[in-house]
Amino acid sequence: MKILFEKYVVNTKEYKQFYMSLKQLLKLKKDGNEIGLHTHNHYWLSSLGKQKQQEEIKKSYNYLLKKKLINKTQWSFCYPFGDYNKVTLKILKKLNCNAAFLTGNQLTNTKSKPLMIKRLDCNMIFPIKKKIKKYS
């Protein structure tokens, strides 16, 4: 995000508005919401070797663990772009990931594997239509 904003936006400090602060995340958790992992750099995981996948996942995992946003025994993951491979699954299992979510727009069922949970995308179910109102 920072690179894109530096290239295309005059005020490069604006990119920070698109991210939640640690204080906001802690409040979300306190209010009963779950904070899950997503990797550090948002790469397509299947394009990375085992070591790089581990680095991407562990960097996010260690940060959230250190900030007390997750705990070692119960945490979830969402695959960037819905992309993963067998290596990704092994890494998540080794780190005791409880649930991992795919992208797309499909219903899951009770037979779904915990690291391959389908989900509905609210933007695909209820597309946002921009309406421009003219006020006189």
- Radius of gyration equals 18 Å
Number of strands: 2
Low-confidence segments, ≥5 residues, pLDDT <50? 130-136
CATH uppermost class of the largest domain: Alpha Beta
What does this structure look like?
With 136 residues, the chain is mostly helical. Helices cover 34% and strands 4% of the residues. It has helices spanning 2-8, 22-30, 50-66, 86-94, 122-125; strands spanning 76-78, 99-101. It has a two-stranded parallel sheet. The longest helix has 17 residues, at 50-66. It is globular, with a radius of gyration of 18 Å.
Topology:
Layout: H1 2-8, H2 22-30, H3 50-66, E1 76-78, H4 86-94, E2 99-101, H5 122-125
Parallel strand pairs: 1-2
Brief rundown of the structure:
This protein is mainly alpha-helical and 136 residues long.
Q: Which keywords apply here?
A:
136 residues, mainly alpha, TIM Barrel, 2 domains, two-stranded parallel sheet, 2 strands, globular, disordered C terminus
